[in-house]
Amino acid sequence: METPSDKPDISGLRIDRSKKFDDRPKSGWWKYIVAIAVLAGVVATYFTLTREMASATQVKVALVSTLTGSDAAAELVATGYVVAQRKAEVASKGTGRLAYIAFEEGDRAQAGEIIARLDNDDIQAALDQAKAELRLATTDTLTTGRNFRRGKKLYEGRLISQEEIENIESAFQTAVAALDAASARVKVAEVNLENTYIRAPFAGTILSKNADVGEMVTPFASSASSKGSVVTLADMGSLEVEADVSEANIYKVTVGQRCDIVLDAYPQTRYAAHVKKIVPTADRSRATVITKVAFDSIDSRVLPEMSARVNFFIQESKPKGGDAEVHALVIPKEAVTTRGGARVVFRVDGDKVSQVALTIGRELGGVVEIFSGLAEGDKVVLSPPGKMEPGQKVEIVK
């Protein structure tokens, strides 16, 4: 049995209430806030430096320009080529070796004039033979004809029999038939000989020479070593421009409508013209309709296959006071893109781009008219990438 002296002394175990709460350890939550802030700053700095150090996107640019005169007054602009409406690949009806050619490129030939000739010695010999046979048949016909006339008189005098006169008449008819056959053979030989001469079907200018002396010429160029046509002939008075007008704008074009034609070779010269015909079919692949535009006056500088631009006018006359009163601010169509349902372009400012919203007007060939957002001389990105964003760094390439 324990005695009181054996119990532990717990008198020293008591709470010291004299200590203050400030002496307790403080919480470390503020350290986490500082760490998060530092981490966010590092991340932001990383992305900023990465963007600044990223390689610039290479782009092609075009300048905002101003059209004046008829280019600006046009309601519609289309491009096309000068085409001769009367043009022929002049070929031979016969087959043979080309023996002679009378014209070079640029020479003018009259209708029916001999352009070239095939080797025709054999055909000439056949014609000579046919003519000789014709003379022989003619002589035979004369002889049998005389015999038939004498036989008729003898038969009337009952000096020869019915059988004899019939034989005489049969010989005469045979000779006449032989004469007709010989005459036909002469005509065939003459046609064959004429087929060796290649003549101009109409008056025109030789555009190209497609065969040389010594080459084989056939009507359909049946082999790789033969030629189908000798020359290309065109009537330079029939030159017109065939312009491709988009389906969306064809309603703006009417037959007889006034136009201006500008050749790419002579951009300062404008040829008065009018719409001659609208071809009643569309090109499915390009969504265009061919419009034939005729020159009101033409000169020797206009050549087939030249590229041309056609300005279609809605107004009855050009603006009063001169062409200089009309102007239009334009950019290439490929510079315009869509962002968020709006038509925009990316303007180059220094080494970065900014997005500019536009108000679009007329389509004038390869350019579009703009009413706001840009100024003449501004650089705009052509065919901007789909991921291009404002502020993106770019490098201009030619």
Q: What this model shows, in words?
A:
This protein folds into four domains: 57-69 and 326-396, conserved putative lor/sdh protein from methanococcus maripaludis s2 fold; 76-86 and 238-314, Efflux pump adaptor protein, beta barrel domain (Elongation Factor Tu (Ef-tu), domain 3), CATH 2.40.30; 91-116 and 198-234, Beta Barrel (OB fold (Dihydrolipoamide Acetyltransferase, E2P)); 120-195, Helix Hairpins. 25% of the residues lie in helices and 35% in strands. By secondary structure, it is α+β, with helices and mostly antiparallel strands. Helix 3 (121-156) runs antiparallel to helix 4 (162-194). The strands form six sheets. It has a six-stranded antiparallel barrel with strand order 3-13-16-15-14-17.
Reconstruct the topology from this structure:
Blueprint: H1 29-53, E1 57-63, E2 65-68, H2 70-73, E3 76-84, E4 87-90, E5 96-101, E6 108-109, E7 114-118, H3 121-156, H4 162-194, E8 197-199, E9 204-209, E10 216-217, E11 226-227, E12 231-234, E13 239-246, E14 258-263, E15 270-283, E16 288-295, E17 307-312, E18 327-332, E19 337-339, E20 342-349, E21 352-357, E22 359-364, E23 367-372, E24 379-382, E25 394-396
Parallel strand pairs: 1-25, 10-11
Antiparallel strand pairs: 1-24, 2-18, 3-13, 3-17, 4-12, 5-7, 5-10, 6-9, 7-8, 9-12, 13-16, 14-15, 14-17, 15-16, 18-23, 19-20, 20-21, 22-23
